[in-house]
Design goal:
Glycolipid transfer protein, GLTP; about 210 residues; mainly alpha; Glycolipid_transfer_prot_dom; about 0% strand; binds ligand 1Q0; single chain; 9 helices; Glycolipid transfer protein domain-containing protein
Length: about 210
């Protein structure tokens, strides 16, 4: 992946994360998120506290995947099965990574919730339902904000106001001129939606949606 953000690359990674049997592969899922971090970074330092948190979570997942138990982290489904069987979902000492007190499931749950925000936000932008700052905070209040304490909600609110207007924003996606970028965005929404729904069902089936 190049250093420059490209929306298409993000879509491709999330698309590739889906297997024929609707498993979600960890490596491609993480790759998709890495692309989103590049975009966050290109938006400026106000968004640094957000990208830092995402980078942190990605590095936990990468170290689990690269650790001695890495084979269990091939997909989200195998991760859930493994951590449930080994009593690791709530954290505890993690033999796989040497990291203590974390679990792959709770770490990924945070990203999963953020994916819902992204799906709502990008949907709104692609349908031109408002300016990026407005749509961003609307999507946030409909999703992630419920899981955040007041101090994070207010920091997020301040950051949203620094988002660029629609056209400069669309240009940052590196997906061509605005009309073309809108089309690419429109294509991104169902892909993110599918990844989100499969994860949501998986977590819900195993009662993992409220992991601390
Ligand atoms: C573009 C602006 C990005 C706005 C993102 C919305 C989320 C804002 C809230 C972020 C708070 C981050 C600080 C840390 C929070 C953690 O406490 C929390 C819980 O973790 P833990 O370990 O404490 O239990 N972490 C999270 O909830 C994860 C939050 C991840 C946010 C991921 C945002 C990904 C953004 C991608 C940029 C895409 C922009 C697309 C633009 C295209 C539109 C034309």
């Amino acid at each position: 992946m190049s250093e420059e953000f490209s929306l298409q690359e993000v879509i491709d990674s999330f698309k590739l994360s889906l297997s024929d049997s609707k498993e979600i592969f960890m490596d491609q899922y993480v790759e998709g998120w890495r692309g989103l971090v590049k975009l966050l970074n290109s938006l400026g330092s106000v968004f640094g506290f957000i990208s830092k948190d995402v980078v942190n979570k990605l590095s936990i997942l990468v170290s689990l995947r690269g650790g001695p138990e890495g084979a269990h982290y091939l997909s989200l489904q195998s991760m859930v099965q493994y951590e449930l069987q080994s009593g690791l979902v709530e954290g505890g000492d993690h033999p796989a990574s040497g990291t203590r007190g974390v679990s792959g499931c709770r770490t990924l749950l945070r990203l999963h919730r953020a994916l819902r925000w992204l799906q709502l936000f990008l949907g709104g932008v692609s349908r031109d339902e408002g300016t990026p700052p407005t749509l961003c905070s609307l999507a946030y209040s409909q999703s992630l904000s419920q899981h955040h304490p007041w101090v994070i909600r207010s920091a997020a609110g301040l950051a949203f106001r620094m988002l660029p207007p629609r056209d400069p924003f669309l240009r940052m996606l590196n997906a061509g001129e605005p009309p073309q970028a809108v089309e690419v965005l429109g294509g991104a929404v169902p892909v993110l939606g599918e990844v989100y729904t499969i994860t949501e069902e998986l977590y819900s089936k195993h009662d993992l949606l409220n992991l601390p």
